[in-house]
Write a structure and sequence with these properties.
Belongs to the GST superfamily. Tau family. Keywords: Cytoplasm, Detoxification, Transferase. Its EC number is 2.5.1.18. The chain has about 220 residues and is α+β, with helices and mostly antiparallel strands. It folds into two domains: about 80 residues, Glutaredoxin, CATH 3.40.30.10; about 130 residues, Glutathione S-transferase Yfyf (Class Pi), Chain A, domain 2, CATH 1.20.1050.10. The chain has ten helices and four strands, in the order E-H-E-H-E-E-H-H-H-H-H-H-H-H. It has a four-stranded mixed sheet with strand order 2-1-3-4. Helix 4 runs antiparallel to helix 5, helix 4 packs parallel to helix 6 and helix 7 crosses helix 10. The longest helix has 27 residues. The radius of gyration is 17 Å and the shape is globular. The relative contact order is 0.13.
Length: about 220
């Protein structure tokens, strides 16, 4: 029996990218369905994620799996015969989940503030954003990837933000490279992987998308 795998996603999402990368790393064929959230939510999205009504939604043989971090974990367990993304060591797994949770709680909200706020709030957001990246850079250390020599779960959790960094810097008017050169080098290293390069949206396209959002919300 062939698995039927469908991904409901909206192209700029740094969360849906995670699921796409994980599927590609495992060599799983899937059908991609674009959810243009500007045009409303499809009946399928509302049916498959009635609680949050959000993308991405992974549908595997008719059953929905919601939330990108859970999806990556699910993909790693279901297609466990190839390219393990999470360590088999319980402590290493716990650490990976801790840092993925840190990314989701801190980076998204702070990143949004770099283009959606002004004045003192923007200045605070820029400082906090750099501090968050420096914390993650410290966790990376001198390793090529967060899990060591092998691209894995935590790299997938973070790399979706890489194509958003130019937009954050442009609209927030700040530079990440001076204080986070190791992390930026990690991002470039990840982009050399086909699974990442083919999943991440073009950063210039993201810059244009954020401009659309600014106009939509009346942020000048």
């Amino acid at each position: 029996m062939t698995d039927e795998v469908i991904l409901l996603n909206f192209w700029p999402s740094m969360f849906g990218v995670r699921t796409m990368i994980a599927l590609k790393e495992k060599g799983v064929k899937y059908e991609y369905r674009e959810e243009n959230l500007f045009n409303g939510k499809s009946p399928l999205l509302l049916e498959m994620n009635p609680i949050y009504k959000k993308i991405p939604v992974l549908i595997h043989n008719g059953k929905p799996v919601c939330e990108s971090i859970i999806q990556v974990q699910y993909i790693d367990q279901v297609w466990s015969d190839k390219n393990q993304l999470l360590s088999s060591d319980p402590y290493q797994r716990a650490q990976a989940f801790f840092w993925a949770d840190f990314i989701d709680k801190k980076l998204y909200v702070c990143g949004r503030k770099t283009w959606a706020t002004k004045g003192e709030e923007l200045e605070e957001a820029k400082k906090e954003f750099i501090e968050i990246l420096k914390t993650l850079q410290s966790e990376l250390g001198d390793k090529p990837y967060f899990g060591g020599d092998k691209f894995g779960f935590l790299d997938i959790a973070l790399v979706g933000y890489y194509s958003w960094l130019p937009a954050y810097q442009k609209y927030g008017n700040f530079s990440i490279e001076p204080e986070c050169s190791k992390l930026m080098a990690w991002g470039k290293r990840c982009m050399e992987r086909e699974s990442v390069a083919k999943s991440l949206p073009d950063s210039e396209k993201v810059v244009g998308f954020v401009l659309q959002l600014k106009k939509l919300y009346g942020i000048e």
